[in-house]
Amino acid sequence: MKVLSLTEPYATLIKENKKIIETRSWKTNYRGELYIHASSTKISKEWQKNKELMELIKNMPLNYGNIICKCNLVDCVYMTKEYVTNMQDNNYQEYICGEYKEGRYAWILDNILPLTIPIKAKGQLNIWNYYTEFEIMDLMNNIEYGWVDKNNNKNTFSYELFSNNYILQSPKEVITNKIGVCWDQVELERYYFKGNDWNIKTYFIVHYDSDKCPTHTFLTYEKAGKFYWFEHSWKTFKGIHEYNSERELLLDVKNKFIKHELNNQYKKENLKLYEYKKPKYHISVQEFYSHCENGLPIKNI
Fold first, then answer.
1. Domain covering 2-129: architecture
2. For residue 34, what are the β-bridge partners?
3. Is the full-model pTM beyond 0.85?
4. Spans of the chain below 70 pLDDT
């Protein structure tokens, strides 16, 4: 769903139908359903001095860090000098709830409906997309397993040249190419999950040997006291798997990796698990290994 993040108290003022125009320095061509998100940024001292604005939110609970209502964005109006003057003279409450200056834009909102249950979210700049985990899985179903080489050639069957010719795609490239190995797919999942206020982590599991050094990357998140393994690229275990603890989750993935990828043939000292952060895009196989190995080693799992 399309979302717009606002600092408080403006998001709550929209939710309460005390504000139906959002003022911006930039134009949008988007029209349609829009969700309003109250960012985590606290009310600035400058706006706290605005007694008229503060009176509007008197005894009104604010909603930091939540998507709180939905509406329709029906128009985007360029502010002329006359428009600003008219707002100041004839719609003063709206005027004090925004920044009205010639050259800015008034985004006109309609059909504002508060959400029964607010949605925790981090928020982003501009108009952004919020997806549930199930919507993300549906989006991931557009991606097949395979890799793209340095010349942007797609490879779905041949992995002989993988070590020397693979490059890590950006999420937008994965969407365009509709193909990626687990390394690429996790970055796309990270991209889709970034608006969620869940504890997102990504892991790299590898068994070092003299031949292929098999690996797998996967994404996890914590929600409402439960831990989830989100898996798309590993077809045998595709789905969203729930656990009571992070340790239980990691043990399960490790054991499945040992059984199904290593056929139970492995050396304990050669099996490693790392938590890793977002890597640079367009890096090689060797660079990706190095990035993950510089992450947080997970021991006693």
1. Roll (2.30)
2. 71
3. yes
4. none
